[in-house]
UniProtKB/TrEMBL annotation:
This is Uncharacterized protein.
Length: 205
C-alpha cells in the first residue's frame, strides 16, 4: 500500500495501473489520463485493517485486507483541485492479487468497462475547463475596464511557462484570450465576456 499512499501524496496518476478498468490501457491510470481527471490528495487514502474489504453491506460482512479510496477531481492550471463528486474505491483481501470494487458503484463501472464513469468524468472535466477559462476572461475584462494594460496579463502568463501542469498550449491560448477580451470584445461587460467565452468553450467541446 505504500506505493499508493506515496502516489496520492505526490499526485502521481501512474501508480494506479494495477487497479482494474476494463477497456483502458494501464487500468485506472489510463482512464484518469484519458478523461483529464486527477486524484485529490487531501480526500484520498489507502489503508489496511481487519475489516476493510466489504463483502456484503446487507450482512455487514467484511474481510481483512486493504482499500484504496480515491476522490476524483479536475485540476486548474495553478494546481488547485475541483471536486467532481465522485469517489472510487477498490479493495483487495489479504493474500489475494485481485482488486475488487469495495462497495463502490463507480469502481464497478470501471471494472465492467461500460463507459459510465468515463462519460461522467468527461462531462465534469469539460464543464470545469470552460468555467476556468470564462472566469479568467471575466477577470481580465474587469482589469481592462479598470485600465490595467494588456501587457500585464501577457507577462503574467509568460511567467507561468515551464511550471508543472502548464503546457505550451495553455500559454498560447491565454495570450489569445487576452487579445480577444481587450480587442474583439472591448465593448462587452465582464459578465457578457464570461458568458460568451463559456458558451464558445462548451460548443467547441
Amino acid at each position: 500500500m505504500d506505493n499508493f499512499r506515496e502516489a496520492i501524496k505526490k499526485g502521481d496518476r501512474n501508480a494506479y495501473k494495477s487497479l482494474p478498468a476494463k477497456g483502458y490501457k494501464n487500468g485506472l491510470t489510463g482512464l484518469l489520463i484519458k478523461t483529464g481527471t486527477y486524484v485529490n490528495p487531501e480526500y484520498s487514502f489507502a489503508d489496511c485493517d481487519t475489516d476493510t474489504v466489504i463483502v456484503s453491506v446487507q450482512e455487514r460482512k467484511t474481510l481483512p485486507g486493504c482499500r484504496i479510496s480515491l476522490k476524483l477531481a479536475t485540476k486548474d492550471a495553478d494546481g488547485s483541485y475541483h471536486d467532481n463528486g465522485i469517489r472510487i474505491e477498490y479493495g483487495i483481501t489479504t493474500g489475494s492479487k485481485k482488486f475488487v470494487a469495495n462497495n463502490s458503484a463507480w469502481a464497478q463501472h470501471a471494472i465492467a468497462g461500460d463507459k459510465v464513469l468515463e462519460t461522467s468524468l468527461k462531462r465534469d472535466a469539460n464543464d470545469s475547463v470552460c468555467t476556468m477559462w470564462s472566469t479568467l476572461a471575466k477577470n481580465m475584462a474587469t482589469g481592462r475596464d479598470e485600465h490595467t494594460p494588456m501587457s500585464v496579463y501577457d507577462q503574467r502568463f509568460e511567467s507561468l511557462r515551464g511550471k508543472p501542469g502548464i503546457s505550451e498550449e495553455n500559454i498560447t491560448f491565454s495570450h489569445h484570450l487576452t487579445h480577444y477580451v481587450y480587442q474583439d470584445m472591448a465593448d462587452k461587460s465582464p459578465q457578457e465576456v464570461e458568458a460568451l467565452v463559456y458558451q464558445t468553450c462548451q460548443a467547441g467541446m
